[in-house]
Amino acid sequence: MILIRPSHTGLIQHDTPGTxxxxxxxxxxxxxxxxxxxxxxxxxxxxxxxRICGGLDLHLRVIDRCRYTSELLLSYQFDQDDGSVIAEPNxxxxxxxxxRVAEVLxxxxxxxxxxxxxxxxxxxxxxxxxxxxxxxxxxxxxWLTYCLxxxxxxxx
Length: 156
Known about the structure:
The structure is a single chain. By secondary structure, the chain is of the alpha+beta class. The chain has one domain. 26% of the residues lie in helices and 27% in strands. A 5-stranded antiparallel sheet has the order 1-2-3-4-5. Helix 1 (20-37) runs parallel beside helix 2. InterPro entries: DUF1249. This is DUF1249 domain-containing protein.
């Protein structure tokens, strides 16, 4: 009988911030959470609102729908004193139906982040773009998890 012992030296953990493996893991987790929140992908130009007691309304808009991909906008919306509405966070998300992954394409925060990449252990060898994508997709993962725990759900 042959015993194979895994060697743990030299391996990169899948959840190491800013790594490609961590980013791919987040894409998969985001897809799973999005499908829990939105089990049936609606047609293009569909807007839905998930309302829960004691929580903020979650707004979803499908802006593009193709055979293999969909693009969504997900946000909370806040009414301002002047009558305008601010969407925060305002995430543009692409869902790849065939690969079963979802990624943040654009995040438009009203306030710039108050933290630096080096606080999270981003090494000079890591790509700044890769780390920025990891950070925005990590935010989506945490936000979707929070929304699901609150009871948000987009029904048909």
